[in-house]
Design brief:
Layout: H1 2-27, H2 34-41, H3 45-49, H4 54-78, H5 83-94, H6 102-110, H7 118-144, H8 154-173, H9 179-194
Helix pairs in contact: 1-2, 1-4, 1-6, 4-5, 4-6, 4-7, 5-7, 5-9, 7-8, 8-9
Length: 202
């Protein structure tokens, strides 16, 4: 019986997490209210509070979004053994599909909180480090395989990739650039960094 109750509670917590995501997408972080989450979840504000206050719910949602984004990207790259294909897949999976890309928008909605919330800053640092580590591993592998010629340390080049991506993601979310334009820009960066022109498809 206790096990079933635990499963039910976890399922409701997952549903509430999706409700927080919906409310954040609709209202933004600064305009988010407890009743927005309650309405999205179809429950009362008091029922929402059973799972934590609004700050705690946002923090949990942010952490889960970071984990999902990172895992999906790492999984996409891990399908290949050739570093050239890994780099292409890493770039492709990391770029927002458009202004309505819910997961990417959620990450950027929560980012300003890092400036004044130490817990959020730790999460954001972990996200950045994880993306840098992925890029660096791919660049090192490509060098070992003889495909990439790197003129600078892999970690420095990886950090530049992530910084460039972050800037372009904002352009996509704001509707100022298309996904294809950003992919082309990142492929140009990859060509400059590695000396290799990435294929468009595996």
């Amino acid at each position: 019986m206790a096990g079933r109750k635990s499963v039910g509670k976890e399922a409701r917590r997952a549903e509430l997490g999706r409700a927080v995501e919906q409310a954040l997408a609709a209202r933004g972080l600064e305009g988010l209210r407890l009743r927005d989450v309650a309405e999205a979840a179809g429950i009362t504000p008091a029922a929402v509070l059973y799972y934590g206050d609004l700050d705690e719910l946002v923090h949990t949602t942010y952490r889960q979004a970071i984990e999902r984004y990172s895992e999906e990207r790492e999984e996409a790259a891990s399908r290949f053994t050739d570093a050239r294909d890994q780099l292409r897949a890493c770039i492709d999976r990391g770029v927002a599909t458009g202004p309505d890309d819910t997961l990417t928008r959620l990450l950027f909605e929560c980012w300003p909180r890092c400036l004044r919330d130490a817990r959020a800053a730790v999460l954001d640092s972990a996200l950045t480090e994880r993306q840098i580590a992925l890029y660096a591993a791919i660049l090192i592998l490509g060098q070992v395989q003889g495909h990439f010629t790197l003129q600078d340390p892999p970690r420095l080049l990886a950090a530049n990739f992530v910084a460039l991506e972050d800037g372009y993601q904002m352009e996509i979310l704001a509707g100022r650039r298309t996904r294809d334009e950003v992919l082309a820009a990142l492929h140009a960066q990859a060509r400059a960094v590695t000396g290799h022109t990435l294929a468009q498809h595996p």
